[in-house]
Amino acid sequence: MSNQKSAEIAARLDRLPPTRTIWMMVILISLGGVFEFYDLFLTGYIAPGMVEAGLFKPASLGFLASLQTLAVAGVGTFVFATFAGLWLGTLVFGSVADKFGRRFIFTWSLIWYMVCSAIMAFQTSGAALDIWRFISGIGIGIELVTIDTYISELIPSRVRGRAYAVNQVITFAVVPVIAFLAFMLKGTQPLGLDYWRVVVLIGSVGAVAVWFVRRRIPESPRWLARQGRFDEAEAIVSEIERKVRGETALPLPAPQPVEAEKEGRGSLWEIFGPLYLRRTVSLSIFNMAQVVGFYGFAAWVPTLLIHRGIHVTASLQYAFVIAIANPFGPLLGTLFADKLERKTQVVGGLVTMGVVIALFSQASAPWVLIVLGVLFTLAANIMSYAYHGYQAEVYPTRVRARAIGFVYSWSRLAAAFTGLVIGVLLSRYGVPGVAIFIALSMVVGIVMILLGPSTKGLTLEKISH
């Protein structure tokens, strides 16, 4: 009875036309992710300011100064702390949305990282800075997993790809804002504070407003139905249907039969069973590979530009120009997100990233570096929205959040060590060494993503089988 009722709820959601109500849910969820992305991407843009403030000198880093033997005791420790926190948040706490609900975790994880980031902004030693960055990263990791889960379960299957693209248009739009703030505030002391502290605090203050907005988002009816809370699921779906009917002024199409999800234990161990093991292993390796290119470039672009002969101040200016491209990748994706198989979009992005980074490593003219940086960013963000949607689709509702948390956590762990590896490669082999590392990782990502199932146009319940 439980599975059948869940299937009926899913069928009613999937038959809905994409009206203003549907897209408003996508927008509200995306607004919830804006400041997570703000906090996530500020690393590369505030790093020069923290370095100038002497926060990454051995005396300031304390016990973390032991990494000096790797030549990465500076910015590398901050990048490491960021992604180590994200890894813990996605792996250990990613499952809480399966237990307590998407809406509850979606809301309160914001408070976690908002408070921790504000505290981090006032630290006066590198060690304390890295510790609070680590704690803040835990909250961001939980939030990102919940957002992917939320969109997949609320949005009709035929526009699910476009929903992920729109989600990342909105969230990535904040990246050029960070770059612009860092560029404009560089060398100033607003309110008597170093510019990088102000950039961090702006994110925390802005997140307060978003916290009030996101309370208008309903709980996932799919999750409620799986918990046996059918009356609540029914009420939410009925309200969504009422709004959609009012917007179309037409009767809703009849629900198409949806095959009920098979029974399962709903535990993390289920994703290692015969049905999901291949998906889990391939997506875990894929996540480790793709993040080398995605964050290896995004978090280090000002530093990479400096190593290509660009002055430190000009590097922030050029990084801002490159950052403007961030929302345009998924914006382009809205044109084909549901027309092409999700895996095809991911592979196309990875191939382009591998080729462009090789060209970037050999270029020196500023305009060429900017053009290549923009192309890399466009490809990376097309790849990003496609794989975020893909890995949310391939698992059943009962374990979706914890499955996403597990496979996604490997990208966080890999990103933590990628920061250290790139620091070593830059010091020993320059940008060409970094380019080879990224290109090889893209090849691994391509192989892994091709091992997964197809999802285009299929309901979540069908894909989960």
Task: Walk me through this protein's architecture.
This protein has 465 residues and is mainly α. It has a single domain (2-463), classed as Growth Hormone, Chain: A. Helices cover 73% and strands 0% of the residues. It is built from 21 helices and no strands. The chain has helices at residues 2-14, 20-41, 43-52, 58-61, 75-92, 96-100, 102-120, 126-154, 160-172, 174-185, 195-213, 221-226, 230-248, 277-298, 301-307, 312-323, 328-333, 342-362, 366-393, 400-450, 460-463. The mean pLDDT is 83.
Q: What is the number of strand segments?
A: 0
User: What is the C-alpha radius of gyration, as a whole number of Å?
Assistant: 22 Å
Q: Report strand %.
A: under 5%
Assign an overall shape.
Answer: globular
Decide which structural class fits the backbone: mainly alpha
How would you summarize the topology of this molecule?
Elements: H1 2-14, H2 20-41, H3 43-52, H4 58-61, H5 75-92, H6 96-100, H7 102-120, H8 126-154, H9 160-172, H10 174-185, H11 195-213, H12 221-226, H13 230-248, H14 277-298, H15 301-307, H16 312-323, H17 328-333, H18 342-362, H19 366-393, H20 400-450, H21 460-463
Helix pairs in contact: 1-13, 2-8, 2-9, 2-10, 2-11, 3-5, 3-11, 5-8, 5-20, 7-8, 7-11, 8-19, 8-20, 9-19, 10-16, 14-19, 14-20, 15-16, 16-19, 18-19, 18-20
Question: Which tags fit this structure?
Answer:
mainly alpha; Growth Hormone, Chain: A; 21 helices; 73% helix; 0% strand; globular
In short:
With 465 residues, this protein is mainly α. The chain is 73% helix and 0% strand. Helix 2 runs antiparallel to helix 11 (195-213), helix 5 crosses helix 20 (400-450) and helix 10 runs antiparallel to helix 16 (312-323).
